[in-house]
Amino acid sequence: MNEQAHEVIDQVITVTTTYGLDVVGAIFILIVGWMAAGWGHRVTEKALSKSERIDPTLRTFFGSAVRYSVIVFTVLAVLQQFGIQTTSLLAVLGAAGLAIGLALQGTLSNVAAGVMLMIFRPFGIGDFIEAGDVSGTVTGVGLFTTQLDTIDGIYVIAPNSALWGEAVKNYSRNPTRRVDITLGIDYNDNIDAAIKVAQNVVDNEPLCRSEPPPQFVVGEMADSSVNIYVRAWTNTPDFWVAYFNLTKALKEACDEAGITIPFPQRSLHIESQIEN
């Protein structure tokens, strides 16, 4: 019994002597690595928060990426401390990463597009945008998808790659927008009188801006009417209200001034031939 106890004690002493420093070193590396990962996370988010162009979601993403990168290097350092060859392990992880990347190619493209959208910020929360077949008010921007509400209240999730790969029209970015209305008058009506009526309507609309000045031009001699282009500027949030107000007021003012807004019509000329 004493001999067995001595053998166990000798084995413990041998293991402690052989691996003791390695265990202490591994624990020290783990502690330092864990602290460094947290410090890197905080410093990265703090540095990115100084730029207003970088989305908060992107700050969190980069902060987490730095943290987990430090943790991975820490684990590899601990394995190296025990004499484990990490070269073959890295090769296996690289091959697995390549296979996963190929399998998730579409998903990774959405992530890359999400990062680009957050960096360049072609639109933000609350903007009304149009890109390809998608249009609506942006309610959220993530790493994979962008959420929108359409004008008729439908919730839409669009892949980031679909938005980044298309030309994006942001109707909310600029502070002002131009209201374009085509006023068609009869060929027998006085053009200058019609333009005067349109000027009075725009001048009396409080949502229209004086700068840039509105425009009233004869833009087209169409089949059934002479088309006057009425162009007035308004603040972007007031665009649709100004558009509807001007459309209604132009119709009422033309009726009051005796200016005809003609229906589409065609003149038919019939020639009769009398056979001898």
Give a short summary of the structure.
By secondary structure, the chain is of the alpha+beta class. It is 52% helix and 19% strand. A hairpin with a 2-residue loop joins strand 1 (128-131) and strand 2.
Q: What coarse outline follows from CA principal-axis ratios? A: elongated
What spatial order of strands do you see in the largest sheet? 4-3-2-1-5
Largest sheet: 5 strands, antiparallel
Query: Given the helix and strand composition, which structural class is it?
Result: alpha+beta
How many structurally independent domains? 3
Uncertain regions spanning at least 5 consecutive residues: none
The proportion of residues in beta strands is 15-25%
Specify the number of helices. Answer: 7
Distance between the termini: 144 Å
Percentage of residues assigned to helices: 40-55%
The counted number of beta strands is 8
Write the element-wise H/E pattern from the N-terminal end onward.
Answer: HHHHEEEEHEEHEEH
Average pLDDT, to the nearest integer? 80
Question: For the CA atoms, what is the radius of gyration?
Answer: 36 Å
CATH topology of the largest domain: Helix Hairpins
CATH class of the largest domain: Mainly Alpha
Which CATH architecture of the largest domain is right? Orthogonal Bundle
Explain the overall architecture.
There is one protein chain. With 276 residues, the chain is of the alpha+beta class. The protein folds into 3 domains: 97 residues, Helix Hairpins (Orthogonal Bundle), CATH 1.10.287; 49 residues, SH3 type barrels; 82 residues, Alpha-Beta Plaits. 52% of the residues lie in helices and 19% in strands. The chain is built from 7 helices and 8 strands. The strands form 2 sheets. It has a 5-stranded antiparallel β-sheet. The protein has a 3-stranded antiparallel β-sheet with strand order 6-8-7, with helices on one face. α1 packs antiparallel against α2 and α6 packs across α7. It is elongated. The N and C termini lie far apart (144 Å). The model has no long low-confidence stretch (mean pLDDT 80).
